[in-house]
Amino acid sequence: MLITHDTRCALAAIVDLLNTAPEGESPGAPDSLTDLAALEDFVRRNDVSDVGALSAGDLAAVRAVRARFAQVFAADDDHAAAAQLNALVASAGTTPQLTDHDGYDWHVHYFAPGASVADHLAADGGMALSFIVVAGERERLRRCEAPDCRHAFVDLSRNRSRRYCDSRTCGNRLHVAAYRARRREAAG
């Protein structure tokens, strides 16, 4: 599956946004997108372009977009995901434009010039997720299988076998726990 640089960036931003929600962290963890400083950090961390001064309204709108992306990840089938994505992208007032800013080759932005950060995320992120659905790859939109995690991720592995948001943390932690359990059982 060919994924362009801008689509990868949009997918990474969606995953990062989803993982700011309590569901994306250990049970009982607080929401980490609660103020303008956190939103500004998110925008900076994900290199979201063409964003002006942020306000409390932007924070509320981005949190609402985050909930809509969560619905796409949780969709039962492609039709439900497509309905969610169609509504999300339409609400952003998409205006596809070719651009070559900041040293990147030609790529498409789906948000209108001067769009809010929420519309920017909804348009570009919604289209990136749409490409995944169109390719018949919706099963790549996953939540970590570690019982105490639930972080979102997009499995871009060749054989679609990734089970954990991060194999170095969640994957290793579960593998070590399973190994120790087997050793205890063998010593038994």
How would you describe the overall organization of this protein?
The protein is mainly alpha-helical and 188 residues long. The chain has helices spanning 5-18, 36-45, 56-74, 78-91, 117-134, 167-187, and strands at 97-99, 107-109, 141-143, 152-154. It has a two-stranded antiparallel sheet. Helix 1 crosses helix 5 (117-134), helix 3 packs antiparallel against helix 4 and helix 4 packs antiparallel against helix 5 (117-134). The longest helix has 21 residues, at 167-187. The chain is globular, with a radius of gyration of 18 Å. The mean pLDDT is 88.
| Terminal residue distance | 47 Å
- Count the strands? 4
Give the overall average pLDDT: 88
Radius of gyration: 18 Å
The string of secondary-structure elements, in order, is HHHHEEHEEH
Strand order of the largest sheet: 1-2
Number of helices: 6
Indicate the topology:
Layout: H1 5-18, H2 36-45, H3 56-74, H4 78-91, E1 97-99, E2 107-109, H5 117-134, E3 141-143, E4 152-154, H6 167-187
Antiparallel strand pairs: 1-2, 3-4
Top keywords for this entry?
two-stranded antiparallel ribbon, 4 strands, single chain
In short:
The protein is mainly α and 188 residues long. 51% of the residues lie in helices and 6% in strands. Helix 3 packs antiparallel against helix 4 and helix 3 runs parallel beside helix 5.
